[in-house]
Every structure is written in structure tokens, then in C-alpha cells.
Amino acid sequence: MSEHTRIMLGRINGLYGVGGWLKIFSYTNPRVNILNYSPWLLYHQKQWQTMLVSEGKKQGKGIIVRLDTIHDRNEATHLLGADIFVDRSQLSPTLADEYYWADLIGLTVINCQGITLGQVDYLIETGANDVLVLKGEYECLIPFVLNHTVLEIDLTQRVLRVDWEADFNEKS
To answer: Coil, strand, or helix at residue 73?
Structure first.
């Protein structure tokens, strides 16, 4: 499996109790959706490990899980800080005009004048709309509003076309 078929969904960020349960920080929306996926591909200390999710649930404002081969707190400790990935094939297909953030990261962003503004480095959620964060000559923030700011997304060519001035975010 190549790194392009792996999608990061979260991180193991704590221990819960003595029975091997783990606290999870989920990047899914809603956060509890991370429990819909198994197996998880854990990346920790430069090594990959496949783990099945035995059970999981919302606990307060967070998520906790028990993995199939982890039975006590000492075993769980070794997974702290592990990034949680799934294989791309585990994700549901998107509808027209729907995109996974992971598909947008790395796309080259070009404006209506044909000027390359940079590449999508990551996205942030603001409540009103998502925002593309570009890396290029300078960092550029562009609202992700389809058919308004974002005019076209070509995943095959790895290009995202926007209606955005080249100097809009430029620092003086």
C-alpha cells in the first residue's frame, strides 16, 4: 500500500483506565465517525502496524477505543502519539461537488489570470466555510466556496482554479 492510499483520520493522544483503552483525537466530522473505520493503520516511531478496533465510544467531549490486541494500560502506553490512518478504499465515494480534504492537499492553485498562487498545504474549518491554506511565495488563505471562489477542481491534473487576486493576501 502506498502512502497516497493512506488517509490520516486522527491520533492516539491518551490513555483511559487500566483496561487498555485509548483516548483518540479524531479529524473526522463529526469526530465520532472515526469509529466507523477498522482496521486502523497506526504509524508510530517510523513503523506501521495494523490494528482492529474492538469497541469504541464517545466519552465526554472525546473518543475512546479498545484495540483488539491491547489488553492493559502498559500495552496501550506504547501506542501514545501514533497517527491513525485508513486505506483510501475504506472511505465512502464522494458525490459530485464533494471532496475529501485529503484529496485537495497538494493541488496546485491557479487563478483566473493563470497565475500560480501555490499549493494547498492544509485546510481549516471556520464555521462559515472551510479555508484553503496555500504555501507558495507567501502563505495565502482562500475561502473554499464552490462555484464562487473555487471555480474548478481537477483531481486528475492536480489543479484547483480560483477567482482570487494574486496579491490579495500578499504582505506589504
So the answer is: helix
Instruction: Give the Cβ contact number of residue 19 at 10 Å.
Output: 11
* Range 120-128, long-range pairs (CB < 8 A, 24+ positions): 120/160, 125/29
Tell me the pTM: 0.77
Cell numbers found for residue 101: 480534504
Residue 113: domain span:
101-162
> pLDDT tens digits, residue range 90-146?
988 888 888 988 899 999 999 999 999 999 999 998 888 999 999 988 889 999 999
Could you write out the three-class secondary structure of 45-70? CCEEEEECEEEEEEECCEEEEEECCC
User: CA angle at residue 148 from 104 to 158, to 5 degrees?
Assistant: 25
Asked if 120 and 144 sit in the same domain, the reply is yes
